[in-house]
Predict the structure.
Amino acid sequence: MEKPVIEFKNVTKRYKLFKNDKKRLMSVFIKKIKYKEKKAVDDVSFDIMKGEAVAFFGKNGAGKSTILKIITGVTYPTQGSVEVRGRVSALLELTSGFDPELTGRENIFLKGQLMGLKDKEIKALENPIIEFAELGDYIDQPIRTYSSGMKSRLGFAINANIKPEILIVDEALSVGDASFRKKCVKKVNEIMESEGLTLLFVTHSASDAKEFCNRGIVLKNGKLMYDSDIEDAIKKYKELLT
Amino acid sequence: MEIFKIIKEHIAWRHQIFKLAKADIIKTYSGAALGWSWAVIKPSVTIFVFWFAFSVGLRTRGPEGYSFFLWLISGMVAWFYISDMWNQGTGAMRKYSYLITKMKFPISTIPTFVSISKLVIHLGLLAITIVLFMLAGHMPDKYFMQLPFYMLLMFLMATGWALFASVMAAMSKDFWNLVKAFSTAIFWLSGIMWDPYSPAIPYWVKNFLMFNPVTYIVCGYRDSFIYERWFFEQPLLLAIFLGEMIIMWMFAIWAYKKLKEDLPDVL
């Protein structure tokens, strides 16, 4: 039996909220400092196999982004275990992994290098990425001059073209216009078919989710409420919203 | 053991570390109309101000055979790197927070590439210092060979500090402000603008300075440029410095290990 590419076992994530900065610093040295605890993820377990396309549903604050951050390796679970087998290419929030002072082109190289690609490989991908992003001359301007739509387009262009194994898309598609979204949909489907991509998709739009995903996970207040095929998951999510 | 994990990360990511150091240098000096020259202009202005105030104003003399200006720059060249690492090294995690909060990245390498970036600038300033000495008629001699030795010690100590302080500063802005507040004090108390070896300095100050790592490095640079002293002539000072360096790294690894998983949540 093949091992799952993503394994979540009883994952809980707690955030410590301190009254102020000073208390947080003191807590490094003294154990008794009081804090409020917030459970962002509460005992969540699931397995995702290679090639699956899973949509994550939930209101804002349900824990979707936190789970994706844990999968990406940005943050760590407070309890439980996580196994991720494969290169994760994630678009978490719009400025994901960009250096605002460097240009779009320089950021392509930076991202590529950070993902372990050699300069030659990045050079080969440079033009397809620039074309996909449709940024024109702006590609040589610093990222801080970009609009949110531009950042989103560049981010997606890079992530989708850098041969991801696990692609995470966190509501970034919501910022593009209709023609760009169409392009993204086409590209994602392409990679899914040709390279057995595993897709994790966070969205509030049921139609977007149905487009790609065959499975849906519904979260509420950090807890996993429902994990099944996409149609049922959407139904359950809509129920929870009312 | 955490130290092995850190070393492994550094080896695995060594290409990226140098690329990020390069990007850090470019970012620090690009954009401003003066660009690269700013890296030289800023220290030059500082040197000019001190030279003017001390040499012209207070009539401070240099040691036998050397102008006050040469005595000044031979120590200041080390201080510029140390001061950069004290202030900006402490801000390393905050400056590169996007590497911590938006992607999976070996955080322990952030202070390292920032340190390398500052070291490259230091090498440039050091070259200029050597050229200035030559123009004044003092050719490089065998004592100059100690400079890489002191530079290495300075780099290791500063990088250890940056790892410790940048993790702490990321957790607490108060800590960062505290560090910045001490910068001027360290400059004046470490014997950069006055000679710690001078007979006029009281015994208890000399004893205190034995334990000041900044003093050790700055005097080491001056020993190489001017005073013709070998590092092995003062083994006790070297031993103290090495001991302090080990303690610094112990603190750095303790802070890193304890806080590294909290950083993405706090920044």
